[in-house]
What we know:
Layout: H1 2-6, E1 14-15, E2 41-52, E3 59-67, E4 72-78, E5 89-93, E6 103-110, E7 113-120, E8 125-126, E9 132-134, E10 137-142, E11 145-151, H2 155-161, E12 170-181, E13 185-190, E14 199-206, E15 216-221, E16 224-229, E17 237-244, E18 247-254, H3 256-260, E19 266-274, H4 287-293, E20 298-304
Parallel strand pairs: 1-17, 12-20
Antiparallel strand pairs: 2-3, 2-12, 3-4, 4-5, 6-7, 7-10, 8-9, 10-11, 13-14, 14-15, 15-16, 17-18, 18-19, 19-20
Amino acid sequence: MRDIVSCFSENAVNVSHSSCSSSHSSNDACIISPTLLVPSLQNQVSAIYKVILSTKKPLLVRVTWCKNQTGQGLILNFGDDDEDDPSTCFKLNTNLRFFRKKKGNKVIEANHSKIEVFWDLSSVKYDAGPEPVNGFYVLVMVDSEISLVLGDIDEETVTRKFKKTTPVAKVSLISRQEHCSGNTLYSTKAQFSDTGIVHDVLIRFGGENEGLKHPVLSVYIDKKTVIRVKRLQWNFRGNQTIFVDGLSVDLMWDVHDWFFKPVTGSAIFMFRTRSGFDSRLWLEEKLLQKDQDRHGFSLLIYACKNT
């Protein structure tokens, strides 16, 4: 990924979220046009949460939902422990053919802490992707402190499980990574701040079947065009800045392999909120450190042509 970072310009183009991109021509439509393409399917979604505990330094929790031809599952990783060490991470095979223990709890030792995971997927419902949409919950306790709650669990259920005086940690979603495969239309949702609303994000390649000489990359948020990159085979890497919910968001793309590796081609898209103190895009080797130190959010989409 180092080569993509080296190509970024220090002078990003600002795009207002409430209007069309300033790089559009006057004839370009602001609202997305209808398309017959079906969005690509997600096969893995990984979210990193920053948990602020009352007695220890912040803990990073990575939640990964995955789905492939052989199975489906959930993986929780804690802190800097080895992701492949089964003794320090929580794994659950949720394949409907083999999934028997749909409700339960498990205690593990990780990151010098006692971690207990409670889950209930007995009524879980999915769309086409690996991430549940409703009918489930996953709750993580770290050293007797409620640290992460995912899903539909309500306050009454939490009260039945724990005392009302049980401390609750502060949690922020700092990054999200999505792997998808299929055609040239990618659809997802993103919340760029803890207090912001959830936005529809759509990334679309066009041109091949639209009578255009050159392929075009279009990115939409809530059906409004925020960038439109023409002559994509020459502009296959780049960045622009857009504004969402009053935040500056760096939007970066690298679609080089999509053109020059026709069999295994892939594309990478990154959204990252920028604070008022940031004067430049972050460097690759400092990405994780920056995500831990700040309260921003980043979204990475890795799109493959094939599964």
